[in-house]
Design a protein that fits this description.
The chain is 42% helix and 21% strand. By secondary structure, it is of the alpha+beta class.
Length: 130
């Protein structure tokens, strides 16, 4: 069985256009923000980036590359990167269209905040079990 990272590599290669380049760039930024991020392959072909739970997914559509943050609604977003799924109580997403750039420092901060939220929730669950 291939690793999730190999599946993500193949997906990027198969896209072969701006979406693959964008996903590859965002993937690098995610790993730069948190070197302990784990890659997973879920839901019949969705790249998932996790640390103490899902941090975000990396979905590709015809018009956008979408990064959905599992705990996005509870994460401070001072640079207003979240521009999709804003009505939900839990998730938030960033949609990038062809040619759009992301504020890299702000994006890395969102990743780190998502990891911190996951770690805090994990610690809270562990404390309740004691």
């Amino acid at each position: 069985m291939e690793s999730a990272s190999a599946y993500i590599d193949e997906k990027i290669k198969q896209l072969g256009d701006w979406r693959g380049k964008t996903l590859a760039h965002l993937r690098k930024l995610i790993h730069d923000a948190d070197p302990d991020i784990q890659e997973e392959w879920k839901w019949m072909g969705t790249p998932v980036f996790s640390h103490d739970g899902i941090v975000c997914t990396g979905e590709t559509y015809k018009q956008v590359v979408k990064l959905t943050f599992a705990r996005g609604a509870s994460i401070d977003d001072p640079k207003k990167l979240f521009n999709s799924s804003l009505e939900g109580n839990v998730r938030r997403a960033i949609d990038l269209r062809e040619g759009e750039k992301i504020d890299e420092p702000a994006f890395k901060q969102l990743v780190r905040a998502a990891v911190a939220a996951n770690s805090a929730a994990l610690a809270q669950r562990a404390a309740k079990k004691k």
